[in-house]
Design a protein that fits this description.
Strand content of chain B: 35-45%
Family (chain A): Belongs to the PAPS reductase family. CysD subfamily.
Number of helices of chain B: 8
Number of domains of chain A: 2
Distance between the termini of chain B: 34 Å
Organism (chain A): Flavihumibacter fluminis
CATH topology of the largest domain in chain A: Rossmann fold
Shape of chain A: globular
Number of strands of chain B: 25
Largest interface: A-B, 61 and 71 residues
Shape of chain B: globular
CATH architecture of the largest domain in chain A: 3-Layer(aba) Sandwich
Distance between the termini of chain A: 34 Å
Structural class of chain A: alpha/beta
Helix content of chain A: 25-40%
Largest sheet of chain B: 8 strands, antiparallel
Keywords (chain A): ATP-binding, Nucleotide-binding, Nucleotidyltransferase, Transferase
Helix content of chain B: 10-25%
Number of strands of chain A: 10
Order of helices and strands of chain A: HEHEHEHHEEEHEEEEHHH
Number of helices of chain A: 9
CATH superfamily of the largest domain in chain A: HUPs
Number of domains of chain B: 3
Oligomer: heterodimer
CATH superfamily of the largest domain in chain B: P-loop containing nucleotide triphosphate hydrolases
Strand content of chain A: 15-25%
EC number (chain A): 2.7.7.4
GO molecular function (chain A): sulfate adenylyltransferase (ATP) activity
CATH class of the largest domain in chain B: Alpha Beta
Structural class of chain B: alpha+beta
CATH class of the largest domain in chain A: Alpha Beta
Chain lengths: ~300, ~425
Amino acid sequence: MSANSIIPAFPRMLEDESIYIMREVAAQFERPALLFSGGKDSITLVRLAQKAFWPGKIPFPLLHVDTGHNFPETIEFRDWLVRETGAELIVRYVQDSIDAGKVKEETGKYASRNVLQTVTLLDAIEEFKFDACIGGARRDEEKARAKERIFSVRDDFGQWDPKKQRPELFEMLNGKINIGENVRVFPISNWTELDVWTYIKEENMAIPSIYYTHKRQVIERDGMIWPYSDFLNTSEDEVPFEEIVRFRTVGDMTCTAAVASTANEIDDIIREILSAKISERGARMDDKRSEAAMEQRKKEGYF
Amino acid sequence: MDIVRIATAGSVDDGKSTLIGRLLYETNSITADKLEAIERASKRRGVDYTDLSLLTDGLIAEREQGITIDVAHIYFSTPTRKYIIADTPGHFEYTRNMITGASNAQVAIILIDARNGIVEQTHRHFYITQLLRIPYVVVCVNKMDLVNYAEEPFNQIRQQFEELFEKANYKEQSLQFIPASSLYGDNISTRSSQLDWYDGPSLLEFMEGIDWHASQNQLPARFPVQYVIRPKSDQWHDFRGFAGKLSSGTLSKGDTVVALPSLQESVIEDIFKFEESLNQAESGDSVVITLKDEIDISRGDMIVKKSEQPAALKEISAQVCWLDHTPLKAGKTYLLQHGSNRVKAKITNLYASINVLDYKTIDDVQEIGLNEIGYISLKTAKPVNADTYAANKRNGSFILIDEGSNSTVGVGFIG
């Protein structure tokens, strides 16, 4: 694709579907929460929730499981968004789970807190008795996610059983659960990465600055560009250098790779995606651990 | 930009995965790293071709056993349309999965191996497209390369299929026969010179051309209320809006409406899509409606035009497809979910089950088991404001929920 390629329109039917799902959550559950990471997908969820309940406020809190390894720009953005929307924010820290001895910090070059956050999340679900957690997962991201339902029932331990999924017919969603169970809800299941970006464009939404081009200290590892930070365990030959980069997906600083890019406008970002040779999750170390990495984490309660 | 939902069904042997892989590949919808991952995995498995089924078979158990368990959703797009494929397996719990995947589809692709012609599975596929009343069916006669791209086998299959269609109920269904080779990309996105005797569209050309929106808007308006919005803020002190997704028809400002089941009448004051006020909501729009009078409406109620009211049914006869391991039995009580409304329902009678291979009904059945289709009647605790499925899909279908397990155990099509 050339730099002049035409930017497709956002399919508006997707928004209608997602708003419908948001309203089903508010109506069918007593204590829902929206899992907020500060990435573009969860920012999109907040926008959809805002629209679904306007002129009322979003009738459920945002829950951020803070790994302590966030990009500072993400936290700054989160706090701004909460002020802007008047939504309630709950933060729970992975550090607290580590201090309480519930999880052990990983060691070595690829240490990250990505897996650890599942425990903090499950604890938060128990603490607040959340019966539904809204997440920004999309079916186009990964093979195991392609088979996930919109209302995905989890057992007492937050586990997903792919063989026991409820059939979802027409637009009817069944959120009835037994005591102890809870549901993960994925309102943007049917969106692709490109849909999220064209929506951000058409809605004129603000996103954290790290999605746009900037100068950053990075290291090179396994042919990818890693953001250099205190959280990253580096070896001696991994010498930080400055590079002009942006992030295509935003997770922790320890597991999100950057791409060399000068895109400083949303149209540039969309054109980059249109011509990309590598899929979005190709920049996520957490998925590369094994062929079935995502399914394994989901079974254990990851969202 | 429109969204087209496609249901594909069949086994790997029919070349279904290759067909999907082709569509993704030729519309530039698969990235290099995904393709490489599949190539790597194919080699590890010791096959000497790129096994595109690995693209859709996502679960560990599926890959270990070489089977597909569940419905996978696959996405591709062209400059004008976004396509969502619900890909369902050929063997394992087939009926349940295909009905689940295809319930929202506008197009079903039935794959037939040009060498084998119509097989048992074809009958099942076609029956489900009829039951669900999927408006467009593509009969894709695949592997034409293995019959030397000859016209004769294609014509034979076409003729057999048309005979099948003669016996079917839903005659408005549009059938399109396309000869193709997904392995070589003949007639998938572009027309093939190998098949110059065929003068119809390629598969993608056909799907780019279909249109069904207009027909949804022409149906009577059905607005199931999902949620009542009452901000109680200073700015919106008296605001009382009814949020929902218009399941069919159109609603306009000034329309005289009634709320069901209360039958109270009012006039539409405003229609909001977020901050924007609309003159008219169309089928599929998620909106908030305000009324001129303060009448009692809550979740599960339905707003309809006064002039186009659905029946208030307490006794329903329906065709059901059973989705659960525990069979349906007469006398049992379930929760019936119809749109946003849930009521208790008791199965009063179980008439027959259907053999999908020859459409013969089997009378005198005691139960309807997993993957079986049957005729039942049931009685509801409160009236359900429904149409027949033939008249209005969204307002003519329901699911049954088991009150013990809370699972969705059946789907019904009101007759």
